[in-house]
Specification:
alpha+beta, about 150 residues, Pnp Oxidase, Chain A, about 25% strand
C-alpha cells in the first residue's frame, strides 16, 4: 500500500486545514477538535474510487495501543465518505504525534463493538447523541495491534 500518491484534500475546508496544520507541526498544533481541547488523530486512507490520498482528523479513542475509528459523521443520515475507503481497503496511516504509522482496521460487531463504543463515548460524549440522531448503526472500526 502506498500513501505517497496524489493528495486530495477534503472538500470541508476545516478538515483539510486541520489535517495540514497537524501534519506540518508534527502533531504540535491542530491536535484538538476546534476549541474543545479534546485530542484528535489524523487518519490517512486511499480513495476507493479516485485513488487519491485522503486525510481526516478523528477523535482520539485509544486503548492499549489500538484506536477506535468511529464513522459517526455527526449522526448524519449517511456514512462519512472515508467509511467506503476503509471497506475497500483496510490499510491506513494513523498519526498520533509526530510520526504516522501504518496499520489495518477492522469493523467491529457484538460485544467487542459495545466495549469500544463505551470507550468512544467516554472519550467524546457527543457520540451518544449522534447514535440517537442517526437512523443507522454507526460503524465502528479498530486498528489492529502493532506487530
Amino acid at each position: 500500500m502506498t500513501f505517497d500518491g496524489e493528495y486530495g484534500p477534503s472538500t470541508w475546508e476545516w478538515v483539510a486545514d486541520q489535517a495540514e496544520e497537524y501534519e506540518s507541526s508534527n502533531g504540535q498544533r491542530g491536535n484538538t477538535l476546534r476549541d474543545t481541547g479534546l485530542p484528535v488523530i489524523i487518519m490517512t486512507t486511499v480513495g476507493h474510487s479516485t485513488g487519491l490520498v485522503r486525510k481526516v482528523p478523528l477523535m482520539k479513542v485509544e486503548h492499549e495501543g489500538q484506536y477506535a475509528i468511529v464513522a459517526s459523521k455527526g449522526g448524519a443520515e449517511n456514512h462519512p465518505g472515508w467509511y467506503h475507503n476503509l471497506m475497500a481497503n483496510s490499510t491506513v496511516l494513523i498519526q498520533d504525534g509526530p510520526e504516522p504509522f501504518e496499520t489495518t482496521v477492522r469493523l467491529l460487531s457484538g460485544s467487542e463493538r459495545e466495549e469500544w463504543w463505551e470507550r468512544s463515548v467516554a472519550a467524546f460524549a457527543p457520540y451518544a447523541e449522534y447514535k440517537e440522531r442517526a437512523d443507522r448503526e454507526i460503524p465502528l472500526f479498530i486498528t489492529e495491534p502493532p506487530t
